[in-house]
Each structure stands twice: as structure tokens, then as C-alpha cells.
Amino acid sequence: MHIVRHFPHQIHEEEDWITLADGCRLAVRIWRPMDAEREPVPAILEYLPYRKRDLTAMRDAQSHAYWAGHGYAGVRVDIRGSGESDGVLRDEYLQQELDDGVEILKWLGQQTWCTGDVGMIGISWGGFNGLQIAALQPPELKAVITLCSTDDRYADDVHHMGGCLLGDNLSWASTMFDANTCPPDPMLVGERWREMWQERLEGSGLWLAKWLKHQRRDDYWKHGSVCEDFSRIRCPVYAVSGWADGYCNAVFRLLAGLEVPRKGLVGPWSHKYPHLGVPGPAIGFLQESLRWWDHWLKDKDTGIMDEPMLRVWMQESVPPSARYETRPGRWVSEPSWPSPRIDMQPFRLTSGHDLLPMTTASTLPENHDETPLTIRSPLSVGLFAGKWCSYNAPPDLPHDQRDEDGGALVFQTARLDQDIEICGQPVVELEIEADQPVAMVAIRLSDIAEDDKATRISYGLLNLTHRDSDEHPQPLEPGERYHVRVLLKHIAQQFPAGNAIRLSISSSYWPLAWPAPAPVKLTIHPAGSRLLLPCRSPQPQEEAALPAFAPPEAAPPLAKTLVQPSQETWRVIRDLANDQTTLEVINDEGTFRLDDIDLELSVRITERYTYAYGNYDSISGWTQWERCFRRGDWMVRSVTRTLMTSTAESFRLRATLDAYEDDSRVFAKSWDEEIPRDLV
């Protein structure tokens, strides 16, 4: 990455407070041009709970200062109850958070250094609330860039996928369990820090328990889901994600559903800003964002809206790996979405495990029959699936799918005689039955290389009780046939000649998704089942005319000193003597010091997902976060632990929170809750 040290504008940086109507003070950091009081500038707001003063300080300094150097005010606000802001954060995307955001925009519009025009940007949480606040139509908000976010909090978020409960639901809940134990910085809030900290420790609660009480698409999840009424958003939206990210589907739904000027961008990246994007190639996203802001906040003709609505990275075939530095491919575009240039090509499943193109010229093999096929997958299917949402660190992408396919039904094409490119959402239609009232189906699409290595390209899950509705699921009638559609993740991928395409079907996918209450046998009827691939023809002249993205740039990073290096492991541990298997993930981020505020930070995260062979009551997920802040003789640390188990009837949560000042424990709390399963 190129570090830019000289900008068109000199930068003034300050930390301040925004006092809301109810007296709550929100902590804010502002980067703006030195002459903004004389020549006001538009503001760019990022509104997060991730602590501007320390946890996101490195990233913020490189992006917000960059925008300030180019004639904007970069504004980072800590959500109520996080960082140095007053109050307690009790859940994600509460109405209070959104109402506070509207007040922040009004405050920004009234500042003497601001023109009154504001854009919102954010990745993940900040991408969510940018869309959610846009739906409230505050007059100051003129444009949004939303990255790695969703329009639908139930169908496509970290909690559920296809009505199935995701393992990342536990992982993400543990992240916020830890975040809510972090104290404000005494250097800013003074002696109030201890009172504020205690209030948070006592009041934030166990979010995982709240979420598990909403296992279907009810009003809890509809709140904050802008897909409920896309017409509420009346400002331009630029939606960005990556193929390795968990949220790429939302880009396509936003392009199809919004009525305002909009653009979409999907690279090969995981859950990262594109100028920091891994797998690479990273792009000059800060320059791209300036083109967007200049157009919508300064009324400059940058040409950005003359370019295609959608640009995506067409990935090429690669060997399977749990971590990629780069993904080979090329940028392609579509002038609109849905694109009339993409055709859904059907492939038929056969009892001989073939995947046959359904064309007028195709013929079935002589030995073809319509015998139903059955699968009762072992719980080991999914151990090499990676995470629902990849951060590319520790290695969290899917590994060789041959390790999974032994417990799945597999259908495969012949070796391709020409390249096939897909762009969009693969769909699988199944005629299926189950021998239990609650069952799930997991489907994987893989690229099979000439050496038979299997790289997962896309996948999808469906809780079969949600076959007709996420809001009103219905149990299955064992032995009855159902026709279901399973939506896979959107993808742009080239399958080269000589490779094959494989479809794999399993009845479990643990720990990416929590299994059904009991072992399930699925019966697939090939005659009523097919795969639909969104096939796209290359457009070489059009692709050659696309403007290239600039190389990544950023403002100088904050100075930091490494005290202890990081350590990452991702291990599958099989204890054959006891028939027990554990997936263990350790992410020790080490210790580093932010030199400008003389603050040392460290965190160590451990996750373990365990089962005993064939015993569905043995499934458990366990997480532990250990975090420490230190400055001179001031030291605070916290330890949070969460254990989630289940029976056929219920989920059980046990959690503990311990907080320490120096070496003395100053707070301890525990939870033990049992929550009935609701057709999950």
C-alpha cells in the first residue's frame, strides 16, 4: 500500500463530544481541513461500537485522515455505551442507536466547518446502520457507502442462513460479550471511567440469549431490515463486499431492490475494506470512495455514475486453501442488475450421480434410472468448511472438499470441454423427503481440478421446516415428498476446460451450522431435482474498456510498538479412543502499544466446537475471550466464557464474565439459561 503523506489540504484532528437531547454524550474524533472554518466541507460519518480511541484507531487514522486531506471532514463516533460514549449498549441496531445517528447527522449539519451535507460509510456494523439510518430519511444524509452489510437481518446475517442457526451466531455473540466489557479511557473521561465501566459490565447482558429467543423471522429481525421497504431509502447507495465475505448476497439484492442511484462492487476479499482487501488483489478504494463523495456531496462530475452499475472479480480456478494471499481473475461488469445477459443453465441430477446439462441435444446414459438416493451424513461434514464470514485470519476459508464429500451425496459433470463462467446466485431445486420432522440440507458447489482437488465455490443451507416461510415454519411429515429451492451464495467464477463441476448434498454442516435435533436421513429424487447455474458469456471488448482501479493508498498509520507477536491456529482434533472430535480455533492477537496515547492492548480468543461420534446431544460450542488494557500502573482486564449445548428439545447457555482492576477481581457474573428449540 502506498502511504500518502502530502495532501491538498492540511489536516486538523480533534477529539470532542456530541451531547444528545437526552443529555447522553457521544465520543467523536474528527479529521478536517485546517481551513474548514473558512471554507466549510461535507462530512463523512462512520458510526460504530468498536472504540475509535484504540481498537479501530489504526484503521481510522488511515482512512478518515485521507478524506480530510482531500477536502472532507472524517468523523468517527462511538455508539452509545461503547468507547468513551455514555450509556450501555444492550443489543445491535436498536432504535435508540438509529435515533442517536439522526441526531449526530443534525449536529454535523450545524457545525460551522460543515456544508450541511453528510455521507455515511461503514463496514459490517457501520454498513448496517448506514442503510438503516438512510431509511429514516434524515435531510443531512446525501449518500451512503455500505460495505459487508445486509438488507435482511434474518435471511442473510451472522445469525441464520436458510433458517438454519449459524455457528458464527455464537462466535459473534462472544465478540460483543467481550466488547461490552471494555472500559472507557480514563485519559478522556477522568475518574468517571470506573462508574461507566461498572454500568456496562452490569447492564449489557448476554446477547446470545436474546437472539436465541428469536429463531424465526419475527418483528425482532424485521426491525433494521431495510428490505422490508426499499423505497424508504431515498439517497444514493454504493454497496461493496467480497466473495470470501459472508455478506456478498446483499449487494445484488440492493441493486435489484433499490430505486435510487446505486452501484455495486464485489472483489475477492474477505470481511475487509477493499484497500486492505485479502485475498487480493486489493484496490485503491479510498480513491474510489472520493469519486463517489465528490459526485454526490460536491456535485463534481467524476464519471463514476457513467460506469456500469456492477463490477465484480471473476475468479479463476485455484487449488483449495484455508487462506489465500490473492485470487487470480479479472474485473467484469454488468450495466444493470438483474442482468439480461445472464442465463440460468439447468443441470439434471441422476441416480448415477451425474450432473448433466439439460439441453435439447443432451441424452441420458443407457444405464440411467430414477432410483431415489439417500444420505445420512456424519457430523464430521463441515469440519473443513471454514467460517460463514471469513476474515482470512486465522485461516478460515474452506479446505479441500474431498474431506467433506465422503459424508455427502455427490453429483458431478463430465470433464468440461470448454470454459464455463458463472455470475450470480446458483439455485438448487430438490424433490426431497426426510425421516424426521426437523431437518436441514446443506449444498456445496465445487470446482474439481484435473488432479481431483475440490475447491468450494459456493454453498447454501436450508432448514426444511422453513421451506415455504421463515416467518411461519412448519414441521416435515416424515416420508412425504417436498419440492424445495436452496439458494446458494452469489459468486463469479470461471470453471476451466478440463475441470469438472461437483454438487454435494449433506444432511449436516457442523460447526458452520447447528445440526438438527436428531440424525436425519434425506431421500433425494433425481427426476425432480436440478442445479441452475447463472452462466455468463465473456465480454472481452467491454472488459478491456473498463477503467482500472488505482493501487491502494492511505494516510500514514499511527505509530505502534509490538510487545508480543500474534499467534493463530485452526486445528481439527480427533480423539479416536473416545470417539470425540474438536475444531479448535485460537487467535492470539498478541500485545501492542499505541504510542501516541501510551496504551497497551492485548486479546486472546479461543473457540472449540465439539461432538462425540453419532451423539447429537454431545454437540457443544465454547468460546473464551481474554482482553487487557494497560497504561503505566493502570491495568484492567476481562475474561468472558460462553458454553452452548443442546438437546432435542432445547438450547442451553452457560456464560461467565470476570473483570479485574490490577490483580483484583472487581466484577463477576454468570448466566445459565435454557431456551426451547423452535423447529431448528
CATH fold name of the domain at 342-538, please? Jelly Rolls
Largest sheet strand order:
2-3-5-4-6-7-10-11-12-13
Task: Give the helix proportion (percent range).
Answer: 10-25%
Low-confidence stretches: none
Number of distinct beta strands: 35
Reported CATH architecture of the domain at 342-538: Sandwich
Q: How big a fraction of the residues is strand?
A: 35-45%
The secondary structure category is alpha+beta
Mean of pLDDT: 96
The gross shape turns out to be globular
Number of distinct helices? 12
By CATH, the superfamily of the domain at 342-538 comes out as Galactose-binding domain-like
Q: How far is the N terminus from the C terminus?
A: 45 Å
Task: Using the coordinates above, name the CATH class of the domain at 342-538.
Answer: Mainly Beta
For the biggest sheet, the summary is:
10 strands, mixed
The rounded Rg comes to: 25 Å
What is the multimeric organization of the chains shown? single chain
GO molecular function: dipeptidyl-peptidase activity
Keywords: Hydrolase
Pfam family, one: Peptidase_S15
Protein name: Peptidase S15
Write up this protein.
The protein is an alpha+beta fold. Among the domains are: 161-211 and 559-595 and 598-679, no CATH class; 342-538, Galactose-binding domain-like (Jelly Rolls). The chain is built from twelve helices and 35 strands. The strands form seven sheets. The chain has a ten-stranded mixed β-sheet with strand order 2-3-5-4-6-7-10-11-12-13, with helices on both faces. Strands 28, 29, 30, 31, 32, 33, 34 and 35 form an eight-stranded antiparallel β-sheet that branches. Strand 11 (262-267), helix 10 and strand 12 (310-315) form a beta-alpha-beta unit. The chain is globular. It starts with a strand and ends with a strand.
